[in-house]
Amino acid sequence: SETNIFGFFFNPIRSGNTYPVFTPSALVVKYGDPANVTCVACQKDCSGDVSGLEHTVGKVSQNGTTMFWTVDRLTEWGISLQCYYNNDAGNQCTSILNPTLYRKYLPESVSISFVNHTEMMFENQQYTLQCSVQNVAPVEKLNVTFYRGNTALGHLQSNSEQKKPVNKTFTLNITPRREDDGAQYWCESKLELRPAGPQRPPVVTSEKLPAIVHYVITITEGDTLHLNCSSVGNPSPSYTWTLPLNSSPSYSGSVLTIKSVGFEHEGQHICTVSNTVGTVTKEFNIDVQSECCQILPGK
After folding, report:
1. Cβ contacts of 8-13, under 8 Å, gap ≥ 24
2. Residue 169 domain-assigned?
3. Is-above-0.90 flag for pTM?
4. Which of 32, 171, 252, 275 is surrounded by the fewest CB atoms within 10 Å?
5. What is the per-residue pLDDT across 100-112, written as a single tens digit (0 to 9) for each?
């Protein structure tokens, strides 16, 4: 079932020293629920005044210059309540309650992806994340936060004034590092409706988007190299390594150790992790540099 909320905000249009007063001045109603509001059109020197409350839904009862508006089931978008009075001099004073309709448990969905990119990323190059929020209202109250793991990367707010549900996309540029390989990017949408709305704003999060960052490991000839491909799975995973030609023999552990690196170890080392649920791979790109020797004068 669909759940929405109306938020009404008080906007007086003055013509003189007094103006009609709505109670409450901000009204929040779940979509489809009953609602009511009171307006005192004139508070003093009201003899002979003409007062009323214009409305498109619900019904109004009146006691003197006090109006009572009620509706059994509030489902209309964009309604306006106008409470007014005219005095003997012909002056009119009007106060307006403008509705903000929002669905309490919106947005319906939030997703994250890269803009024009589906493959692995390269270290120190720029990429653009996008967070797509579907069917949200009011979008002007929408805040989006991008995350890498538990780290917030950026907070963005909509500047649209559209009242009815819309789709909205936010973007954020990132420059991944090698430490980000295997990290998970995600985004969170929040409708900030306080103080009139719920004190715990409606929040919807996206799925997690794993990052694969391509980078080169530079190591000196003769040094020891450790490549860690350890993974957690149920059932426990098995490991298969695909190594450069003319390098070490095949290996099947989670951590590949080469005690003395040579130029034959340059290139891609690919770790394949498998169990009955699925298979994932991780690439290590190795660049071997010559050992540098210091030449002393006179030697």
Report:
1. 8/37, 8/81, 8/97, 8/98, 8/99, 8/100, 9/97, 9/98, 9/100, 9/196, 10/95, 10/96, 10/97, 11/95, 11/96, 11/97, 11/98, 12/94, 12/95, 12/96, 13/93, 13/94, 13/95, 13/96
2. yes
3. no
4. 252
5. 666 655 678 999 9
